[in-house]
Amino acid sequence: MTNDNPIGVFDSGIGGTSIWKAIHDLLPNEKTIYLADSKNAPYGQKTKKEIIELSMKNVDLLIEMGCKLIVVACNTATTNAIQELRAKYDIPFIGIEPAIKPAATNSRTQTIGILATKGTLNSELFNKTTEKFQDTKIIEQIGYGLVQLIEDGKIDSQEMTQLLYSYLTPMIDANIDYLVLGCSHYPYLIPQIKKILPDHIHIIDSGEAVAKQTQNILREKTGFTSAEKGDSIFYTNTNPKVLNEILENKYKVEVRDF
């Protein structure tokens, strides 16, 4: 079974490109369309109702563009809206949620940290997940301000460094040995985070797992492309400068109001 339609990916901004990169690395033949809803970033500070409405707006556009499956490359949108999306639309969805399980399973100190948005940490889905690991102490930290600094192109700023120190130091003091990044923006902070964390603390994000699940859904439900190389196009509803920089100016980026 072959299907040359594109894979759709959306996020509340540029952060989901970390997920897109993992998918593209594993499935370079597939065509992809990415929506960066930076105008409404961050989703993590919005109500559940607002998050669902924004997610449906993005899905409507991706379906209009002929996507065969949609990757919700946003922890907040996944944990707050994916059940509603699956109920409304007849298309496969792949979500992204914090990788609590591998961290809790492999932790030797039985203490892990999670850095995520308010919307993710307060969601019903996240709380159901953490309830499964009651023998593990989970240090939760809302990453106030991090997404906006990334969206503003200030990854290496002094302000970013100060915020990360304030968020990570209590986790280090609590003896975590795994840090879970619970927002698709945060993998872009790994070089900064590694300068703060001791070497024995492992950092986990969800990119590779999402890419493998995308491959599974293509195999089982939608079909792989017959193309030898897949084109990728990125749409943003704000200034494309930072998105172009994240993508190293290698891909087509268009500004579109959505």
Question: What do you see in this structure?
Answer:
The protein has 258 residues and is α/β, with parallel strands linked by helices. Helices cover 43% and strands 17% of the residues. The protein contains 11 helices and 10 strands. Strands 4-3-1-2-9-10 form a 6-stranded parallel beta sheet, with helices on both faces. Strands 6-5-7-8 form a 4-stranded parallel beta sheet, with helices on both faces. It is globular, with a radius of gyration of 18 Å.
Note the beta-strand portion.
15-25%
Uncertain stretches of 5 or more adjacent residues: none
Distance between the termini: 33 Å
How much helix is in the residues? Answer: 40-55%
Number of helical segments with 4 or more residues: 11
CA radius of gyration is: 18 Å
- Order of strands, main sheet, comes to 4-3-1-2-9-10
Mean pLDDT across every amino acid position: 96
How many β-strand stretches?
10
Secondary structural class: alpha/beta
Form type: globular
Biggest sheet details: 6 strands, parallel
The ordered string of helix (H) and strand (E) elements is EHEHEHEHEHHEHHEHEHEHE
Keywords:
single chain; 258 residues; alpha/beta; six-stranded parallel β-sheet; four-stranded parallel β-sheet; 11 helices
Question: Could you provide a short overview of the structure?
Answer:
The protein is α/β, with parallel strands linked by helices. 43% of the residues lie in helices and 17% in strands.
Helices and strands in order:
Blueprint: E1 7-11, H1 17-26, E2 32-36, H2 48-64, E3 69-72, H3 75-88, E4 93-94, H4 100-106, E5 111-116, H5 118-121, H6 124-131, E6 137-142, H7 146-151, H8 158-173, E7 178-182, H9 190-196, E8 202-204, H10 207-222, E9 232-236, H11 241-246, E10 252-255
Parallel strand pairs: 1-2, 1-3, 2-9, 3-4, 5-6, 5-7, 7-8, 9-10
Helix pairs in contact: 1-10, 2-3
